[in-house]
Each structure stands twice: as structure tokens, then as C-alpha cells.
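Changelog note: in this version the structure field was regenerated for every chain. One regenerated record is shown below for reference.
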Amino acid sequence: MNSNIIKLEKQMIDLVNKERETRGLGSLTLSGKLCHIARLHSKVQLQHRNIFHESPVDGSDHGMRLEEGGYMYKACAENVSTAPNLVMSHNGLMNSPGHYKNIVGDWDEIGIGIEADANGQLYVTQLFANPVKLVNTDLFLTQILDGLSQHRKRKNMPPLPHLNSKIVQMMAKSEGSEINDKLFDLAFNDLRRKGIKINNAQVFQFIGFFNPYSDTQIKLASRSSTKAISIALHQNKRTGTLKGVLVFLS
């Protein structure tokens, strides 16, 4: 890639972050993936000698382009500009209320893509986004089980067996806050077939990084009548929402 263009892109990122810093806002982190997507859009703008948010090639908007580029986001915005030089482009964006709002918005990451024609006219794309942050659900599951086992250990009780269940996993993946009664019955019967005699089950759900060690759950985990536990976690890769289902079996 043209070294002069790379230099211009870095200068624009510095200009944006300087504007944010003078207003007491945090600097944005450069995203290589956002830069790549921004460059592709600037190339299309150069080819059409015009700027636009909706591509005349395929009708995509910036949100669609991010998804097609494999960037999963919670929120995003785009600024586009054409100008004879970088300073004029930056000043034009800063003097436009909508573009200014994006520059000083509540974002985590930024990507800049710039193309130039033979006369030096610049076609600029700025992308701002808050990425979906995925967690290691297997590690989080292990931490929950270890935490509950520690409470039992303090009472000289053995750790609870963890029963994997595809139905409990389905419960974690299900949309909405209410667990379907039919799904609950299927899960209960599925867990009973795991080789442990089970008469009762109590189900708890949580959304996000909620601490699963409530007084009620610790009490259930520490009961001598509790024979096993089944836990499933699911994170929506599009929204980043983490959902958990805990089933105490007695």
C-alpha cells in the first residue's frame, strides 16, 4: 500500500484522538479490520468520484459492510469526506454537527481508509465502533463450578457432579427471559437419565456477567440433598449478550 496514504491515515487518527483528548475523552484504539473495511469503501468512492454511505455497487451501508468484513459490533458509525488535503477533510468533518458527533462519540475503536486520485483529491472513510467482546465460556463455566465446590469444601462436602445436557444448553441459547415449560421437562428427564436418581430440579438464569453465587444458590449447592448440578452458558456472537442457566438437582 502507498506509504504516503498510510501516513495520511495515521495523521487523521492522530487528529481525531487529539480532538477527543482536548474534550476529556479517551483515545480510540486503531482496528486493522476497521481500516481494511474503510479502505475498501474509499476505493469505491474514488472509482465513482463521489462520497456516499450507501454503496452504489451493492446497496450496502456501513453496518452491512462491517458484518461482511467479519467485524461484529454492538454499535457503529461512519464519516465520509472528500477534500484536496487532510486538514480540509478533518475541518469539514469537525464543522458538520453529525460528523462531529461521531468523532466525539462513545466509541472504543476506529478505522480510517483513504484513497487519492491523480490530482491528490482525497476520499476518506472513518469508521467508529464498539466491538462485541467474546468471552471464554468454558473458562467461565469452570470458574462457576470451582466457586460452588469451594463452598462445599468448607463444609467438608464433596464437589457436585456436573451433568452435561444438550437440553440445558438449548435453554441457555433460547431467546427471551422465560424458560419454556416443555423445554424444562425435557431437560429434567434428560438429566435423570445421566445415572443419578433425581426427584427435583431448581433452575436459575442470569444475563451478562452476573455473579452466580447468590445466597440462594450457595445454600442449594451446600445442601446435602443436592446431588448434582448442570450448567450451560451461551454468548450471542452478534450482540455479545451472555446468558447462563444453572440447574440444581436433588
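Spot check on this record: DSSP finds nine helices and seven strands in the chain. The mean pLDDT is 90.
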